[in-house]
Amino acid sequence: MTLKPTKRFIQRIINSIEIMVKYTLLLPFLLSLGGCSSEKDGRPRQIVLEYKNGNVAIEGTLNGENEKVGEWKTYFPSGDLFERINYDASHEDYYKLYQTYNENGRLIRETQENATQDKNHFNFVEKYYTNEGLLRYDISTDIYKEYDDGGAYYDYFELEKKIYQNGSVMKAAKFIDHELIYTDWYDINGEFQGRVYSTNSKYKVEHDN
Fold first, then answer.
1. Which helix (DSSP H) or strand (DSSP E) does residue 7 occupy?
2. FRET partner for 83 with CA separation of 20 to 30 A, picked from 98, 116, 127, 128?
3. Is 142 within 8 Å of 160 (Cβ atoms)?
């Protein structure tokens, strides 16, 4: 059994589309796609779109199957970088690198694939920042590729951390295959306060004495 793309992955795509809608009205002023077509001729093509003012809007590479490969960049009309995506991830639910910037040039979202020793183990870390550059939360996801009689399937282990403004962890939530298992809570000084378990919609709280 192979899991479908995660809701968070789908929402990430939706968010990017919503932001870029702001600039869609400028697309009629873009220059030619430079030979981009839907025909699959087996040859990779470099794609460059430009705004009417001459600044690059989008650039990247399509392979012979008209699929995005390698690094793609999207820019604000001012010429400042809006988004950088590297599509060559080891797992289809994630990007190898994904970065989004605001109009002030601050990084506000990032996904990074980390190297592992096991070819059947994938690790991705997502980080989300405020417009001022403060870390809001991060999500570390470990994906393990397993096999059974039906073929390959994947197990997802996620740890999501919410962060106080002073940088201390507020809470850390553990998910297995996208199901919440427990949440650890901390005070603003980073002192552990307790663990809240979630099993079949029944909750209990445990404290260290």
1. helix 7-24
2. 116
3. no
Domains and CATH numbers, the chain: 7-33+43-163 (3.90.930)
DSSP run (H or E) holding 19: helix 7-24
Listed residue (86, 91, 82) closest to 109, CA to CA: 82
Burial of residue 132, with CB atoms counted within 10 A of its CB: 0-12 exposed, 13-18 middle, 19 or more buried: exposed
Query: pTM of the prediction?
Result: 0.73
What the block records as the tokens of 59 is 């650039």
Q: Mention every residue, 6+ apart, whose C-beta is less than 8 A from residue 107.
A: 99, 100, 101, 129, 133
How open is the CA angle 109-93-180, to the nearest 5 degrees? 80
Q: How far apart are the first and last CA of the chain?
A: 42
Structure confidence by residue, pLDDT tens digits, 84-127? 999 999 998 899 999 999 999 999 999 999 999 999 999 999 99
* Three-state SS letters, 128-178: EECCCCCEEEEEEEEEEEEEECCEEEEEEEEEEEEECCCCCEEEEEEEECC
Residue 53 CA, chain-centre distance (Å), reads: 30
pLDDT at 28: 41
